[in-house]
Amino acid sequence: MSPARYTANLGRNSVDSAISNTPSDSIIKDGNSLGFELSDLSVVESTLPPLPRLSTKMSYQPLASDDPDEQKTYGSLDIPPTRSPSPLLGESLRVEDYVSDIENPFLDTETAEYWRHVYENCQYECRHVFNPKLEWSAEEEKELVRKLDWKVCLWACVMFFGLQVDRGNLSQAVSDNMLDDLGLNTNDYNYGHSIFLVSFLLAELPSQLVSKAVGPDRWIPMQMVLWSFVAISQCSLTGRGSFLLTRSLLGFLEGGFIPDLVLWLSYFYTSRELPIRLSYFWTTLSVTGIITSLLAFALLHLRGVFGWEGWRWLFLVEGSITLCIGIASFFMMPASAVQTKTWFRPKGWFTEREEAIVVNRVLRDDPSKGDMHNRQALTPKRLWEALKDFDLWPLYAIGFCAYVPQSPPKAYLTLTLRSLRFSTFNTNLLTIPADVIHIINLILLTRLSEWLNERSLVAIIQPLWTLPCIFALRFWGGVVEDRWGTYAILITLLSYPYCHAILVGWCSKNSNNVGTRTVSAALYNMSVQAGNVYASYIYRDDDKPLYRRGNTTLLVINLISMPMFLLTKLYYVWRNKQKERLWNALTEEQQIEYRKTTKLQGSRRLDFRFAH
């Protein structure tokens, strides 16, 4: 018997025997997946002959590291199979002098046919332009990405501007003595903020489910129009009851908007491009702060016009701006790259070739992006599977802790500046420097993550930045007494490099299918909002103006969040090694059969590797 034949036969019989005797009791022969668990690894390994695996007809090149983005290639003929394959799991398409076929997972005909069958079964809206053999130049792709940025990413930023205008203008309103006008105190302000966040949190997952069923291109504009009416109604607030009611309604209607928009963006961009676009997306947070600070400077001067306070004019004008953006969004959000032609846009955004390139580049990066059509609701079973995907829980834990240390200083910035004896109008202008530096740091941090192809070790820069500032707020004796020194600490703190775009892209990448990605985006954002709810109670009325107790809490949380980034990286490295050992324990034939028959989805697949 030849060595190759000996390896194949002995390997298959030994592994079959081992797997059939394990507690998982699942084997290729029963037509289901190789669903054996990590606990079966020692049994599988003990039965394998200590022979090198030799090449058969189809083989794959090895992973260069634990990170699936690094130096990855796909199915090709007669290449020594020294690594675990991910032929069904597309990776990043790099723009070089030309687009290489080796970066196309669908060159393996079995892989192409498998996914063609998946796309047909789920009635994926772009299935008619799926073409495994389509080629395009790097220049074509670069021009197309530039067009996507102008058409898709830019409008996403405009919509996020509309969200942030109505979500963040309360801090400007209170700088105009809104609390005194309504007979409220700091604790009422905290309570209203927490009601908003709880409502926002509770709406996240239901909003995502509705968005997946009707399509984000329909649901997002509806959300914006509905919450803009509530935002406008704030100009008629009369007291504590109406204040809390509008806070709750705003949170409930705005909840889910961000993951809905991230889902829509994922239809057009690859997993490597998405975090950069999300960094542009979240720079809008700071841009909005700058624009609304200048707008507030003008609008708050209207106090006394028609007997209204300035903050009432603020809510009226800014709510009207969001209403206009919401109405325009009905016409600016196509359902997919192949659905841009409509009665008001007869020529569409793309040529037929451009449509094909947009779709195929996204599918080659991640074939699972076509395993549901864009108006397909999640079934309870898929929802439950996504909820119990424990491999994403470390990212949710980071989301809960990472943004707490800077949240109270941000929420109380205008109140703190007023307590430092700055005027109403100067207070709003003095918030601008933090927003400008925040934009720069956000983009630089996300670019650094992309350049190094590293997530956790780059994202940890955020808590490292905030730590000395929180320490100074807690222990420096000149806090409040030295108003410019206090201002400098606060501005430095709030200029922190924001890692949110990295975390959202990381969560999307490790979800590995549309259903899980839909739910995980909501769960991650819910974790962030839960952290914000907790943060809203850290600064209390009996602790001001120095907030010693509150800043001690922030310091502890900041110290806790730093090792969480490191532990998450170590966890994903460990999980990848486990998967690698299990995968390498299979013969070539078993690997092929696994890819054909496994019922496992998303990150639970043996041929998937976690990004970190």
Beta-strand share of residues: under 5%
What is the arithmetic mean of pLDDT? 80
Total E-strand runs: 2
Tally of separate helices: 26
- Termini gap: 44 Å
Uncertain segments of ≥5 residues (pLDDT<50)?
Answer: 1-98
Class computed from helices, strands and strand pairing: mainly alpha
Tell me the major beta sheet: 2 strands, antiparallel
Q: In what order do the strands lie side by side in the largest sheet?
A: 1-2
List SSEs in N-to-C order: HHEEHHHHHHHHHHHHHHHHHHHHHHHH
Q: Please bin the fraction of helical residues.
A: 55-70%
Roughly how many Å is the radius of gyration? 26 Å
What's the overall geometry?
globular
Produce the secondary structure layout.
Layout: H1 3-20, H2 41-47, E1 58-59, E2 76-77, H3 109-121, H4 138-168, H5 170-174, H6 178-182, H7 186-214, H8 216-233, H9 240-254, H10 257-266, H11 274-299, H12 310-332, H13 352-365, H14 380-387, H15 393-401, H16 407-411, H17 413-419, H18 424-430, H19 432-452, H20 456-459, H21 461-475, H22 483-494, H23 500-511, H24 514-535, H25 548-584, H26 588-597
Antiparallel strand pairs: 1-2
Helix pairs in contact: 1-2, 4-10, 4-11, 4-12, 7-8, 7-9, 7-24, 8-9, 8-10, 8-12, 10-24, 11-12, 11-18, 11-19, 11-23, 14-24, 15-24, 15-25, 19-22, 21-22, 21-25, 23-24
